[in-house]
Amino acid sequence: MEQKNTKTAQKQKKHSVEKPIDLSVEQSQAEVTPFSQASMFDQDMKKQQQKNEKYAKLKKQVALEENLDLKAQIQKDDSSIIDAEIVEEHLEEVQKYEKQKKSKKSKIINLLFLLANIVLVVVLIVGLLKSLNGQPLETVIASQGKRLWWLAGGLGVMFVVMLADACSLFMIIHKTTKKARPVLSYTTAITGRYYESITPLSAGAQPSQIVYMAKRGISPGIATSIPIIKMMIYNACYVFIALTFFIFVGPTLQATSTLNNLFLIIFKILAGIGLVISSVTTILIIVVGSSRVWGRSLARWCIRMGYKLRLVKNYRQSYDKLMTQVIEFQNSIAYLRKNIGLLIGLIVACAIQLLATASVPFFVTMAFSSVEFASTAEGFRYWLDTVMRFYIVFLAASYIPLPGGTGMTEVAFVAMFGSDLLMGTTNIVWGFLAWRILTYYLLIAQGIILIIVDAIVGASHKRKIQKQENTSLEVPKITAHTTQSLTKPTTKRKKKA
């Protein structure tokens, strides 16, 4: 019994210590006397200090979230498609990329690349207008008239491109998180296309998408896996479609002059080299990802050959990095094997995205030419011709180490679509400019708008949080009026019976 009373007393003592102090005027009038004002001020100072510490802790937590400190989340993440250690290594690389991207030097370089691209386009347009006796824009508008409405079709096709890209991301996010997030899927697609357009060899697309999704509630393991799965399916579809067009449509392309035929042969060779590189890369990814024994053996052989040829300087570092990628591919392919429905849906979405992208030159050509079709079959044949020429342009410029294949893309498009069978030399300048705006500058403008909107929303959200924190951490100030009210003797009127 005595032990029980002791425990009860300790409980009461504990609760009395942990009970928060309420400094409201009504309670103070009942409990505070003139002699306890000093201790009350001490309590206020102590309480203020505790709240300052709490505020500093919250501020530190916000700073960590802004810096994307995801390592703590990885330990709790059980929904990762790839291994937690691989996720952590991949995120470390992403964080390094993010720091470089946010640096002034990186921003200046990206801006210079973009300006260089714009200057090159302007110089090319001016040069082509002079050399090809191109028509002024006013003349083109007057001569083409209603045919220019075909450009609206090109704009609609670009919307289909973005929608198909977002759908593929939506399917993976919905399958892995069991949540439908269409807005996040579309904005992630915009982010990827933006950084793909402004970084050399499109290196910034995947890291930017990983960071973007992770900051918006997608777990690190899933955020790291999504771009890998999307990239594998997209590349496989791209190689299959391009190879099909090269085999069945490529030999039927016609040239209207000796010079045009020479350009066609040169760019076919360059595109063929690009297609071989893409095909070999895709086949290696499938082989490496499908077989653990063959995949890892092949990776070791590649590193050894690279080291012997002195292409690889640090053997251990290169080996570890390549094996990490091998494990990523193997886990991703194993996941897709278990989810055949997701695999089929991704193949369909990527095929639509690729064919829609390749169809933009068809609408541009129809806007700036005088072509008429006698039948639907003839129109379909013309569409196949423009798609084939697009793949020649795209493959020839795909391994140029500049953002958007700057330089090669412009020259190849003019050579492929400047034929008299298409836009001809008089309208090719404006057709090229329209195509470049639809497929390149529109994506950059979309990305810039998203960055500005995110910055405004983020700043507004941060101000609201700080305002709420400041409000919750405010300590009631004891003024002269409240001091006088506290020093007054407490008297209570007795209720009349």
Keywords for this structure?
single chain; mainly alpha; 19 helices
How do the strands and helices of this protein lay out in sequence?
Blueprint lengths: L1 H17 L6 H7 L5 H30 L4 H6 L7 H19 L1 H28 L5 H8 L5 H28 L4 H17 L6 H10 L5 H29 L9 H33 L1 H17 L6 H24 L1 H28 L8 H22 L10 H10 L6 H49 L7 H8 L10
Rg is: 33 Å
Average pLDDT rating: 75
Ends apart, CA distance between termini: 43 Å
Poorly predicted regions are 13-38, 62-78, 480-488
Please give the number of β-strands: 0
**What is the strand content?**
under 5%
Main β sheet profile:
none
Distinct helical segment count: 19
Helices and strands: which structural class? Answer: mainly alpha
Approximate shape = globular
Indicate how many domains the architecture comprises. 1
Query: Helical amount among residues, as a percent range?
Result: over 70%
Written as H for each helix and E for each strand, in order along the chain, the element string is HHHHHHHHHHHHHHHHHHH
Mind explaining what this structure looks like?
This protein has one domain. The chain contains 19 helices and no strands. The chain is globular, with a radius of gyration of 33 Å. 30% of the residues are buried.
